[in-house]
Amino acid sequence: MSGFDLSKIPSQAPPPGVTPNFENPYSLAVLPRGFIYATLPPMVLFLGLRFYTRIKISRQVGIDDYLCAAAAAVIIAYCGVMLTFLDKPAGRHMWDVPLSELTVEYASRSSILTGVYMIAAMFIKASILCLYRRLFKVSMTANIMIWIGLFVDVVFYLATFIAFMVGCIPRPEDDQYGGWLSLTFAQRCNQVSTPTAAATGIVGSVLDIYILIVPLIMVSGLRASWKKKAGIFAIFIAGSSACVFSIVGTAYRMMIFANPGDDITYTGMPIYAMNIGEINLGIISATMPVIFVLFKGVTKTSLSWISKLRYLTRHPPPPPTRRATCRCCGAQGHAHGPAVVDAQQEDRTTPAVGDDTTVALQSGGGGEMLTYVSADYDYHRQLKMGAVGGGGSEIWAGQTQTAGTPPSSRGKGGK
Fold first, then answer.
1. How does the protein associate with the membrane (predicted)?
2. In the predicted model, what is the mean pLDDT of residues 52-58?
3. Residue 314 has what pLDDT?
């Protein structure tokens, strides 16, 4: 085609009545780009908080953390590669893409991204399941469910990754016809990629739902009130957003599977966007049970200051000049010698908040009780204890104490 200007020829014939637009065409590239900007920075932040919690607080970095970091590294690479070809040509209709933009770089990167997504999905699902094993390893039921999930996750994604790469990597015989741009390669890759993409969506969605159900089953067996169970349910259900993106992505894959077409630069954009949202929100969801102790610490500190502020507003400090009895001469109102302050005034000072105590602030007048639990707890240890129901243990180590019960009666650790 040496006599033709490829920048003037559309990659595909437009529908009747449509004129190719190479200058300012409509593009769906805004979808994956928006998901990258909206979900990638929060994912990096939450991942950093996870490792801060593991290194500085629990001092126990495990295989689940390394798998989560691996998934983050893979999806960051995925997003970086995608940004290199959005709108050039990805996102536009094929008839708005000149042949000069269908390069080897685009063909190779778009094919490799599919395999990269499979690896990222495998890592993050395995990370969540390994985290569950740390939380619920004392339960035989949980272990069986977790190992089944891990087996299906690793075997399925490795098998589909190998099958995809075998079909969508050019072979030596394709070189004479154009390699990545050869018609024989494109036909062979389409025969593999379409059913593989559909299978990846279906099995991935089923796995996501399965991973969401496992902790809900275990938490429902805890010996705790429904109010406390609901709090832990909320932590794990936060991961349902990743399931939503996975299911929506599967729906788009099935639409392409049922009605395959040639407008791949346009129809693939929603799938790319759902892939990014699924993995990034999956990583964020995987960090929530780990970094929950950080948010509880922030809440605890905030409530402590609120409690002190409310106490001071209801019980203002005594005036600067107080009548005191002099130990030397028995006279009142002068400053020499140590003063004996009235006991009622001493009782009006603000109670100190200990590191491992429950502070109850009694307000005057209406008998309102403002309680605050300042005892720290090991979230994971309590889940493990509750998973087996040992000794009727509660999932929270710090329990609100009734008024009048001395903090010392709870002992070290809030027991």
1. Multi-pass membrane protein
2. 86
3. 59
> Under 8 Å CB-to-CB from 282, ≥6 apart: which residues?
71, 124, 125, 128, 208, 239, 242
One domain, residues 215 and 330: no
Give the Cα separation of 363 and 309 in Å (integer).
12
CA dist 348 to 174, 231, 312, 358, 364, Å? 87, 36, 9, 18, 11
Which amino acid type is present at position 266? Y
Of 17-26, 59-68, 364-373, the one with minimum mean pLDDT is 364-373
Residues 260 and 339 reside in one and the same domain: no
Please report, to the nearest 10 degrees, the dihedral formed by the alpha carbons of residues 239, 240, 241, 243 taken in order: 110
Main-chain phi, psi angles of 359, to 5 degrees: -110, 125
Q: Residue 325 — very low, low, confident or very high, per pLDDT cuts 50/70/90?
A: low
Tell me if 279 is assigned to some domain: yes
Q: How many domains does the chain have?
A: 2
Tell me how far apart the terminal alpha carbons of the chain are, to the nearest angstrom: 82
Q: Is residue 212 part of a domain?
A: yes
332 lies in which domain range?
Answer: 322-349
Residue of 249, 146, 242 whose CA lies nearest to 199:
249
Residues 341 and 227 in one domain: no
Locus of tokens 């259900």:
237
Residue 413 has pLDDT above 60, yes or no: no
> Can you list the alpha helix ranges (DSSP code H) found in 315-362?
343-346
The encoded tokens of residue 321 equal 């000049």
Higher pLDDT pick, 356 / 29? 29
Q: Residue 385: name the closest of 160, 222, 208, 190 by CA.
A: 222
Residue 180: predicted pLDDT? 87
Going by pLDDT thresholds of 50, 70 and 90, the confidence category of residue 239 is: low
Sequence-separated contacts (24+) of 252-259 with Cβ below 8 Å: 253/197, 253/198, 253/200, 253/201, 254/198, 254/201, 254/202, 256/194, 256/197, 257/194, 257/195, 257/197, 257/198
Assigned token pair, 93 = 């209709």
Which two three-digit tokens encode residue 30? 């805004």
DSSP 163-226: HHHHHHS--GGGGGGTGGG-HHHHHHHHHHHHHHHHHHHHHHHHHHHHHHHHHHHHHHTSSS-H
Is 90 exceeded by the pLDDT of residue 153?
Answer: yes
